[in-house]
Amino acid sequence: MKSSQLRSRAHLAAQFSGRLILASIQILTIIVAAWHLLRIYPGDRWLPVRMGNYFAPWLFMALIPGLLMAWVGRRRRLLGMVAALIVLFVGQYWSILIPRQPLAYATPNTGQLRVMTFNVNFQNRNAQAIAGLVQAESPDLIAFQEMTADLIRLLRPKLEATHPYYLVDDSWGLPMVLMSRYPLTAQPKPFGTTRAQHAIVETPDGAIVIWNVHPNPVVDKGWEAQKKLLAVVANSVAAEDGPVIVLGDFNTTDQTENYRLIADHLTDVHRAVGQGFDFSFPDFSRAITPDQPWHTRLLLEFGPVIKIDHIFVSEHFIPQESYVVSSAYGSDHRPVMAELVMRIK
Asked: How many domains does the structure of the chain reveal?
């Protein structure tokens, strides 16, 4: 009698667990479907839509085991809904989910350029590590965000030999810095424009317009300020005939309306030749200490979960490579690198 009761209870527990899992998948499916519809209206004006934009890759990955569970549970309607949502996501991300090769170019008429964007975090004082990063990755141009006067003072002597040219924009609380192997000239910005740096770099293959950007986060009224800044940059880019690079910590992902303000005019190098989601934020490894419990260290080592650092280029460039560096070098962002080939007329 006891054995049959145990089997009955185990069967009931298994049934309850299965129903709970299927119910969770149904809730997830409703949330993801609602997010897709709300992106049409009211769009990014509504904070929950913006939050969904940030974590869209994770919603996509959560649907994959959901598809399997719906199939095992023989829930045909649920299976169809999950499959349809996965198809939508694949349509959005297919370009980074398949193996990529550098875009072809003709060597005699091209010039190579390596660029980096790195939000160093305003609390970071690890100039030695950052200098080591620059030496290892060998970028020709670096766009830094969240610099401080102290870090600039510590970093300049370490990079002066390889990157003798630099510009500082301190039009808001945290300086933005460009460092380059080639001469830099600051350019005017529309009146009142902050959290952006505008310059021209004179490379051996010609002049390039540079925008180093760090718009507001999207919480509270930050979304409107972010949209205003990126619209200013987009209008400037649209008026340019020559090569343009826009890079930085955009505080937004590739699923947002504000991202598309720039993407409508320029190519996202990661979308062109990158592989995978290449998350760049947040990296909490700087907070790890030897005396922490193993589960705390494991959580801190989990790594970035969203991509908000981007590099865009005009049609004058042929993207060759895009990747996120595997360490944050004392920051909560990981550096993003791109290798480009510039078409020479």
From this structure: 2
